[in-house]
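PROTEIN FOLDING TASK:
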Amino acid sequence: MPVPDRIRAAPRLTLVLGGARSGKSRYAEGLIEAQPSPWRYVATAQAWDDEMAARIAEHRARRPAPWETVDAPRDLASAIREAPAGRPVLVDCLTLWLTNAMLDEAADLAAEVDSLIAACKAVPGPIVLVSNEVGFGIVPENALARRFRDEAGRLHQRLATIADRVVLVVAGLPMTIKGDSE
């Protein structure tokens, strides 16, 4: 059976960056929904408190069937590798995954990032990765926050290198900074 043009035209790997409440998740969902369903949503958030539980519920409410949600707060590489071949995958969000990994003091962060990069290289796509751009702000006052900002920046650089398209979303407006625009 021939592959429809819209599937052929979708980049294999897209990285969507933006600040908090920038519209990056809605934009990324739209990229995935432009592909034939079913769609896989890999969620990295954990509900540590009521406010975070409400955020998670809001995101889930936006994704009725045919979205399939897979919770992967820690083993993100496996969740990406285990997606059925050719199924569009959305990962939201890398900075929450990074937070989870950094707070797990037993984690080998470098090895986990390497595993994530390898998984992203291995999947046929399309895959859309969402992450918070945290490097535009002031230098944080504590060592953990500075390390997080630095690790996120390094992660984004590595992913941007292998991504076919990188988009920065500001105030709901997507700006393509690598690859073809839609």
